[in-house]
Amino acid sequence: MNTSPNGIPEHTLASMDLIFSLNPTFVARGFSGDIKLMTRILKAAVQHGGFAFVEMLQACPTYNHFATHEYLLDRYFDANANGHDPGNLQQAKALATQVQDRIACGILYQREDIPHFYDRLIPRQELKTTCVEEVRRYDVSEYWKELV
């Protein structure tokens, strides 16, 4: 059910301005109409050594009659294929926020000079193992017997 059948009277949130105000180390935007681009972005986001913000554009055929699949298909472009340098913060901000005529997708911003999140945790600094390696398996079958 559409919660705003008469439109939204408020201004929408400038999400990319908000994201860049948080000093991110990875910002990307993808489009559901370009699976190869989405795959490249999501793979890079997962491999990034910190918090990765990924915005995915997807048309809503039920409630959004303006930003249709065709509308997005006509306006999106792969900024990296056009020579965008993800290390350039000012250019990344401009590409991310200017969406009136064209919508920049791809890896818009990435910093790789900041230490990985786990490397910055003081209690982990002397450890050589990863968190995943330290997880133990527990047999919880006895607990399930009480519930079933």
Report on the architecture of this protein.
By secondary structure, the chain is an alpha/beta fold. It has a domain of 90 residues. The protein is built from 6 helices and 4 strands; from the N terminus they run H-E-H-E-H-E-H-E-H-H. The protein has a 4-stranded mixed beta sheet, sandwiched between helices. It starts with 14 loop residues before the first helix and ends with a helix.
Low-confidence stretches: none
Distance between the termini: 38 Å
- Whole-number average pLDDT? 87
Bulk shape: extended
Number of strands: 4
* β-sheet strand percentage: 5-15%
Topology order in helix (H) and strand (E) letters: HEHEHEHEHH
Specify Rg, calculated over alpha carbons. Answer: 21 Å
The major beta sheet can be summarized as: 4 strands, mixed
| Strand adjacency order, main sheet | 2-1-4-3
The total of helices stands at 6
Summary keywords:
148 residues, alpha/beta, four-stranded mixed beta sheet, 4 strands, 15% strand
SSE inventory with pairings:
Elements: H1 15-21, E1 26-31, H2 35-47, E2 53-57, H3 69-75, E3 76-78, H4 89-97, E4 103-110, H5 131-134, H6 141-147
Parallel strand pairs: 1-2, 3-4
Antiparallel strand pairs: 1-4
Offer a quick outline of the entry:
The chain is an alpha/beta fold and 148 residues long. Helix content is 32%, strand content 15%.
